[in-house]
């Protein structure tokens, strides 16, 4: 289950990049995709649990998770649109480091000198990836910065979701959070959604269905079942493979290229995470 989750997450970057470069506007894509996923989780949760109602004391956390996911998806879809999927994959490798830093800020983590060395190495890798863009603010560099935003907001989202998991099932959390995220997504994306030409061909729609029900819906179930069976420490350590696989898929399937300095940056990001390895929060897709 864990291996399937990692592969689906890795493929999602390549699939999304293909969809966005073959006619689907970024916000129209996100609006339709999250609308279908939110409805799916609502139906599943009502069938299994009979209610969606959160405790009044947890409502603020649910709203925070939803709004963070909204910002995360804006960053994700435009990062993938404006730069290569392989570069975005390298940026997402920094999620565990951002998660740890948030824990420091909230005083829920006490980390060793080894962690700080690892964090420094990881962020040096991010710097090399940015340097490899050649300073093209209107192109790759802008996409890399959006990729960093995506990684940082996913770290915040993971921390909030981890707290909600003390009281609610993964399906109920998704059924609560995804609709909250979808409302501002739909409002922001309304002009593109309304203007979108949906005659995109069978191939694009087949990939769209994969991106929705594979990396977004199915992996939610598989990921949390993996956590239950093998524990979060082993599961999150394995997810460090996901950015590497995503970059490989993008290079092989989309014929993307990475500059040597960016490859070196990716290796530094991975080395920093290995040096600072710790128990982490869930990492995904998108």
Please explain how this structure is put together.
The chain has 286 residues and is mostly helical. The chain has one domain (2-275). It has 12 helices and no strands. It has helices at residues 2-20, 26-49, 59-82, 85-92, 95-105, 113-131, 140-164, 170-195, 202-230, 232-238, 241-254, 260-275. The radius of gyration is 18 Å and the shape is globular. It starts with a helix and ends in an 11-residue tail after the last helix.
Number of strands: 0
Which class of secondary structure composition applies to the elements? mainly alpha
- Please report which band the strand proportion falls in: under 5%, 5-15%, 15-25%, 25-35%, 35-45% or over 45%: under 5%
User: In total, how many domains does the architecture comprise?
Assistant: 1
Assign a percent range to the helix content.
Answer: over 70%
The biggest sheet, with number of strands, parallel, antiparallel or mixed sense and barrel status, is: none
Order of helices and strands: HHHHHHHHHHHH
Q: How far is the first residue's CA from the last residue's CA? A: 18 Å
Low-confidence stretches: 135-139, 279-285
Net shape: globular
Average pLDDT rating: 79
The DSSP helix count reads: 12
What gyration radius follows from the Cα positions, in whole Å?
A: 18 Å
């Amino acid at each position: 289950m864990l291996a399937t989750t990692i592969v689906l997450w890795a493929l999602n970057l390549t699939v999304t990049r293909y969809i966005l470069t073959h006619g689907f506007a970024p916000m129209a894509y996100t609006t339709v995709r999250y609308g279908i996923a939110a409805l799916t989780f609502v139906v599943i949760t009502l069938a299994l649990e009979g209610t969606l109602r959160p405790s009044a004391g947890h409502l603020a956390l649910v709203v925070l998770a939803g709004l963070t996911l909204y910002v995360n998806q804006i960053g994700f879809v435009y990062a993938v649109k404006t730069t290569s999927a392989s570069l975005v994959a390298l940026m997402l490798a920094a999620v565990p480091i951002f998660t740890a830093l948030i824990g420091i800020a909230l005083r829920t983590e006490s980390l060793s000198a080894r962690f700080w060395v690892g964090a420094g190495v990881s962020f040096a890798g991010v710097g090399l990836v940015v340097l490899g863009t050649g300073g093209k603010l209107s192109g790759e560099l802008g996409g890399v910065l959006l990729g960093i935003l995506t990684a940082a907001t996913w770290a915040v989202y993971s921390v909030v979701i981890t707290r909600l998991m003390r009281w609610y099932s993964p399906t109920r959390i998704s059924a609560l959070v995804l609709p909250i995220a979808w409302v501002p997504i739909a409002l922001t994306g309304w002009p593109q959604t309304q203007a979108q030409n949906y005659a995109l061909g069978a191939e694009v729609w087949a990939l769209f269905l994969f991106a929705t029900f594979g990396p977004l819906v199915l992996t939610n179930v598989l990921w949390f079942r993996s956590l239950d069976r093998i524990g979060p420490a082993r599961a999150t350590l394995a997810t460090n493979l996901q950015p590497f696989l995503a970059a490989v898929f993008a290079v092989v399937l989309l014929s993307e290229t990475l500059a040597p300095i960016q490859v070196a940056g990716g290796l530094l990001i991975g080395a920093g995470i290995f040096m600072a390895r710790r128990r982490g929060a869930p990492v995904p897709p998108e």
